[in-house]
C-alpha cells in the first residue's frame, strides 16, 4: 500500500511539473529586472451533482474541509495522504470571484504555502483522477467543493 501511495505522489508531482510548461500558464516578464512571474488559472466547472465549482487550470476539483478554521488547516498526517494541498501560487481567478478572497497560509506541520479561499485552506482529492471528477464531494459530510456560494464555518 505504501509503495502505491508513493507512486501516486510521484505521479502527482510529475503532473504538476508538466503543468508548469502548459500553454494555460501565463508568464509575465518584469522588464525592470528580467525576472518572470507565472500565474496559473482557476476556472469554474459544472456538473449535475454539484452545480458550479472551482477547479484548477487542469480541471482538477478544489475542496475545503469543514473541520478547518479560518487561517488554519486541521488536515494533517494521514488526512493529507487523501487530501493533498493546493499549493499557493499566483492564481488568476474566474469571473464572479474576487482575487482578494484568495490568499495563503503557511502550514504548521510542513511549512508549505497552501492556497486559501476566504481564509480557508484548499485541497485536492486523490480519488479524482480526471478533469471534472468530484468524487470528494460530501465525503464523511466534511469535504465539499468550493464555489462562489460556499459558506465557511457552518
Structure explained in plain terms:
There is one protein chain. The chain has helices at 2-19, 78-82, and strands spanning 26-30, 35-41, 43-47, 51-55, 63-65, 90-92, 102-106, 113-117, 120-121, 143-145. It is of the alpha+beta class and 154 residues long. It has a domain at 41-145. Strands 1-2-6 form a three-stranded mixed β-sheet, with no helix packed on it. Strand 1 (26-30) and strand 2 form a beta hairpin.
What keyword list fits this structure?
globular, 2 helices, 10 strands, alpha+beta, 3-stranded antiparallel β-sheet, 154 residues, 3-stranded mixed β-sheet
Helix-strand blueprint:
Elements: H1 2-19, E1 26-30, E2 35-41, E3 43-47, E4 51-55, E5 63-65, H2 78-82, E6 90-92, E7 102-106, E8 113-117, E9 120-121, E10 143-145
Parallel strand pairs: 2-6
Antiparallel strand pairs: 1-2, 3-4, 5-10, 7-8, 8-9
Largest sheet: 3 strands, mixed
Q: What is the topology, as strand order, of the major beta sheet?
A: 1-2-6
Order of helices and strands: HEEEEEHEEEEE
Q: Average pLDDT value?
A: 83
Question: What gap, in angstroms, lies between the N and C termini?
Answer: 35 Å
Categorize the overall geometry.
Answer: globular
CA radius of gyration: 16 Å
Beta strand %: 25-35%
Count of strand segments? 10
Share of helix, binned: 10-25%
**Which structural class do the helices and strands define?**
alpha+beta
Brief rundown of the structure:
With 154 residues, the protein is of the alpha+beta class.
Amino acid at each position: 500500500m505504501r509503495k502505491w501511495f508513493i507512486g501516486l505522489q510521484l505521479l502527482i508531482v510529475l503532473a504538476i511539473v508538466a503543468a508548469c510548461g502548459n500553454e494555460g500558464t501565463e508568464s509575465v516578464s518584469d522588464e525592470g529586472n528580467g525576472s518572470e512571474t507565472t500565474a496559473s488559472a482557476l476556472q469554474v466547472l459544472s456538473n449535475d451533482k454539484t452545480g458550479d465549482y472551482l477547479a484548477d487550470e487542469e480541471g482538477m476539483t478544489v475542496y475545503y474541509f469543514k473541520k478547518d478554521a479560518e487561517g488554519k488547516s486541521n488536515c494533517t498526517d494521514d488526512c493529507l495522504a487523501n487530501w493533498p494541498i493546493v499549493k499557493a501560487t499566483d492564481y488568476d481567478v474566474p469571473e464572479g470571484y474576487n482575487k482578494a478572497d484568495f490568499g495563503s497560509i503557511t502550514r504548521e506541520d510542513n511549512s508549505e504555502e497552501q492556497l486559501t479561499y476566504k481564509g480557508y485552506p484548499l485541497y485536492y482529492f486523490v480519488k479524482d483522477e480526471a478533469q471534472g471528477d468530484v468524487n470528494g464531494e460530501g465525503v464523511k459530510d466534511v469535504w465539499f467543493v468550493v464555489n462562489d456560494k460556499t459558506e465557511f464555518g457552518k
